[in-house]
Design goal:
Blueprint (H helix, E strand, L loop, with lengths): L2 E7 L6 H9 L6 E7 L6 H11 L4 E5 L5 H11 L4 E4 L5 E2 L4 H11 L4 E9 L8 E3 L21 E3 L1 H6 L10 H12 L5 E11 L7 H18 L6 H14 L4
Helix pairs in contact: 6-7
Length: about 250
């Protein structure tokens, strides 16, 4: 089974090498690695080109302006030829060298449309875990409260994009939540939770910034619920922060 890993990045010179290294060092060999660079001008594109020249059979990249993170992700998905697609953003790394191998094992053995797991958050240059986001207690019904599994842990079969649609590019940070709604609520597809620490995320992206976590996040989740004909409760959207605290299993 070929698995396509997509890295979306822009001006991440300090971290992009670690991201690339964590992909090429995976124990699973049948990986198609696609880097979508948003016309970086900080020198990170030179790092990408260097790795691509050293690993031409493993890495391909596209560097051009985009209209946002979901536009960039969709570019990567359209280029992907793997049976399964996963994401690893330019500030993040896999939590171990066997993550893709474990994902592939589950996807091969079981006829499931997607899997998801856990992620943890750290600061740049630090190994201290400031938040551990577990999806162990997640159920599809929680989506109606604005609660979703961590998006960087999602691995989908490529055919689902053609069948159910790509990420909606007019969202700033909420298109992944919309995707979960379309998969689980609208089309009633059920994936599998993989009890695995899959990705180490670096705090600093749009979705981890306080304003966007509180205001943009709630606004776009409200919109996604409405657009997918789901019952919307502002009270439940606010109440979900109790669930967020519950998932913060610091180690």
């Amino acid at each position: 089974m070929k698995i396509s890993i997509i890295t979306v990045t822009r001006n991440n010179k300090a971290t992009i090498a670690a991201t690339i290294e964590s992909v090429i060092s995976q124990s699973y060999q049948n990986i198609e690695y696609i880097i979508i660079d948003g016309a970086s001008d900080d020198g990170s594109l030179d790092v990408i080109k260097d790795y691509t020249s050293r690993y031409p059979d493993k890495i391909k990249y596209l560097s051009e302006s985009d209209s946002g993170v979901y536009n960039a992700i969709n570019k990567g998905v359209r280029l992907a030829t793997g049976e399964v697609v996963g994401l690893l953003h330019g500030n993040d790394t896999f939590s171990s060298s066997t993550i893709v191998e474990q994902v592939a094992k589950v996807m091969v053995e079981r006829d499931i449309p997607f899997i998801y797991g856990d992620v943890k958050y750290t600061h740049v240059g630090s190994e201290k875990v400031v938040r551990y986001y577990s999806a162990a207690d997640f159920t599809p019904e929680k989506l109606l409260q604005g609660i979703a599994p961590p998006h960087p842990s999602l691995y989908m079969r490529r055919e689902l994009f053609d069948k159910y649609g790509f990420y909606k590019e007019d969202y700033l940070i909420g298109a992944d939540f919309d995707m979960f709604l379309r998969l689980m609520i609208v089309n009633r597809l059920y994936g599998k939770y993989l009890p695995l620490d899959m990705v180490t995320m670096t705090i600093g992206g749009l979705s981890t910034q306080l304003y966007h976590r509180i205001f943009t996040n709630n606004r776009e989740k409200y919109r996604a619920l409405k657009e997918n004909s789901c019952k919307v409760s502002v009270y439940l959207l606010i109440k979900r922060y109790l669930y967020t605290f519950k998932t913060q299993k610091n180690r």
